[in-house]
Design brief:
Blueprint (H helix, E strand, L loop, with lengths): L8 E5 L3 H13 L4 E5 L3 H12 L9 E4 L10 E4 L16 H18 L4 E4 L4 H12 L6 E3 L3 H15 L6 E2 L2 E2 L7 E2 L5 E2 L2 E2 H8 L5 H22 L4 H15 L4 E8 L10 E9 L2 E5 L6 H19 L4
Parallel strand pairs: 1-2, 1-4, 2-3, 4-5, 5-6
Antiparallel strand pairs: 7-10, 8-9, 10-11, 12-13, 13-14
Helix pairs in contact: 1-2, 1-8, 3-4, 4-9, 5-7
The structure holds nicotinamide-adenine-dinucleotide.
Length: about 325
């Protein structure tokens, strides 16, 4: 067996919308040489593995199969996407705590038993609370348990800003931090395009900095999940690529800085809570968390977000 330190095996628990699309993104990007899908619905995992294998003549070489928890052994990374999603209109991610805590009580100890070395990446919602649950249930060091956190919200924010300012989203550098959910925080004070703060960018481009438009962009960012779910029933393309981005950063030891959820030790009144800040990720997981120079309003909003997540964690009964 290849050690988890060297392997590029990725195990995905939950072969639903997010898990299967994530496997597809990993395959297209050539991130993993082995991808194993595990699902309570075995036939679903088998069907997804078949469909993915049929893509191989057009993609990167990889071994893909439907397996069980024993196949997590030696995986560098196990991505957990299993569990319920938001179904009813208006249902919040926090409404899923009890259901998905039960799912995690089944899954996480099994993964940890077969793979005590590899990293865990959590996508199931509410992702910050479930990341905390995964850390406690696995007994892994906090730097090895990462939640996708606000990687998706940050992507939505950058996209919407890019539309407003008519630039490539990759030239927009702006973070959403805190909860992946209703209390998330936009870091306007540090948002920039090619290094220029947004008001300065507007001055240089001779356009008006429109505060109301900025507020609307944040509201659209925060509500984007609801908007997509009300139309197509689930969100999965963007989060799947976000997970593949995180996996690539880890497996290739890139130290890319991404907004992901991790257990915080101090600062911002968020000790003992998993929430998102910009984090450098490498082969051993979290390398460092960037202490952002937030303004007072942003720091206060982050404390509110942390308080909400602390209340969510209390519901886990761990
Ligand atoms: P889905 O219903 O399509 O897939 C979930 C899969 O989990 C199913 O195939 C199901 O059989 C499997 N499953 C359930 N219980 C299991 C168990 N005990 N063991 C193994 N497998 C089990 O749902 P989805 O749309 O893929 O969403 C999955 C999760 O991801 C949800 O919690 C959703 O809210 C979350 N999500 C998170 C983000 C994010 O940004 N973090 C974005 C989208 C969705």
């Amino acid at each position: 067996m290849v050690s988890a330190r060297l392997s590029t095996r990725v195990a995905i628990i939950g072969a639903g919308n997010v898990g299967a699309t994530c496997a597809y993104a990993l395959l297209l990007r050539g991130v993993a040489t082995e991808i194993v899908l595990v699902d309570a619905n075995r036939e679903k995992a088998v069907g997804e593995a078949m469909d993915l294998n049929h893509s191989l003549p057009f993609a990167q070489p990889a071994r893909i199969w439907a397996g069980d928890y024993a196949d997590c052994a030696g995986a560098a990374l196990t991505i957990i996407t299993a569990g319920a999603g938001r179904m009813a209109p208006g249902q919040t991610r926090m409404d899923l705590i009890r259901t998905n805590a039960g799912v995690f009580r089944e899954i996480v100890p099994e993964v940890a038993r077969h793979n005590p070395e590899g990293l865990l990446l959590i996508a199931s919602n509410p992702v910050d609370v479930m990341t905390y649950a995964a850390q406690r249930l696995s007994g892994l060091p906090p730097e090895k348990v990462i939640g996708s956190g606000t990687i998706l919200d940050t992507a939505r924010f950058r996209f919407l800003l890019s539309q407003h300012f008519q630039v490539d989203p990759r030239s927009v550098h702006a973070f959403i931090i805190g909860e992946h959910g209703d209390s998330e925080v936009p870091v306007w004070s540090l948002a920039n395009i090619a290094g220029m703060r947004l008001p300065d960018f507007c001055t240089a481009r001779e356009i008006t900095y429109d505060q109301e438009a900025m507020d609307a962009i944040f509201r659209q960012t925060r509500g984007a999940g609801y908007e997509v779910i009300s139309r197509k029933g689930a969100t999965f393309f963007a989060i799947a690529l976000g997970l593949a981005e995180i996996a690539g950063t880890i497996l290739r030891d890139q130290n890319t800085v991404l907004s992901v959820s991790t257990l915080l030790e101090g600062g911002y009144g968020a000790e003992g809570v998993c929430l998102s800040l910009p984090v450098a990720l490498g082969r051993t997981g979290v390398q460092w968390v960037l202490p952002m120079g937030l303004n007072e309003a942003e720091a206060a909003a982050l404390r509110v977000s942390a308080g909400k997540l602390r209340a969510g964690i209390a519901q886990l009964g761990l």
